[in-house]
Amino acid sequence: MSFVLKEEQDFSYIDEGEGEVLLLLHGLMGALSNWEDVIKEFSGQYRVIIPILPIYDLPLLTTGVKSMAKYVHKFVKFKKLTDITLLGNSLGGHVGLIYVLSHQSLVKALVLTGSSGLYENAFGGSFPRRESYDFVKEKVEYTFYDPATATKELIDDVYATINDRHKVIRILAMAKSAIRHNMNKDLHKIKIPVSLIWGRDDKITPPEVAIEFNQLLPDSELHWIDKCGHAPMMEQPQEFNKYLKVFLDKIKSK
Fold this sequence. Notes:
- The chain is of the alpha/beta class and about 250 residues long.
- It has one domain: Alpha/Beta hydrolase fold, catalytic domain (Rossmann fold, 3-Layer(aba) Sandwich).
- The chain contains nine helices and eight strands.
- The protein has helices spanning about 35-40, 65-80, 90-100, 135-140, 150-160, 165-180, 205-215, 230-235, 235-250; strands at about 5-10, 10-15, 20-25, 45-50, 85-90, 105-115, 195-200, 220-225.
- Helix 2 crosses helix 3 and helix 4 packs across helix 5.
- The radius of gyration is 17 Å and the shape is globular.
- The model has no long low-confidence stretch (mean pLDDT about 90).
């Protein structure tokens, strides 16, 4: 990816384009490259910012979804961002929801895709065969409708990550924190517009999760992408960007 990674104070992030802010939050095993097609499509009209979440950098005792939301707020204050449209995939969606609950005045709209926060069918709290490359390959492919979306580069990255003891214990701590932090009783407090863009074949956060989000979030709309798993912006980027553009145009005209 040809985008420049900026380093300031304790923050690493991509900052491309000018205009209203799209703040993108990646998932637990996600990377900045997951959002590549969104950056390419929207950095001509928007300022697209992606902070790297410090999943592997916090003390183990404070590794959790709430600490990630606090980190996002520190970043937002540091960059003096306002009137944000926040996009989150998987864990990033969950962190975004927690952030919005505390800082609704700074966020004008929210886009969730494959978000945790209600229910997720993740790795099950452990990696029983993490030393097996084939096991890891199978798990990464499970994320997508089309297993070919799981490139060798992506599988290699995940394999290296979960075979790093320092990283894997934090991944497990973060996954457990996400499972414990169910948001169904809080979602009615989120009054900003929310677009749910969901893979109809998502096996990690299945369609019923999107339907429940849609029911619980007062100002939400739900869009399905066929033949698509847990990361629509990677697997079906054109469809994802189509729905995202319609939503962005709608909230801009309000």
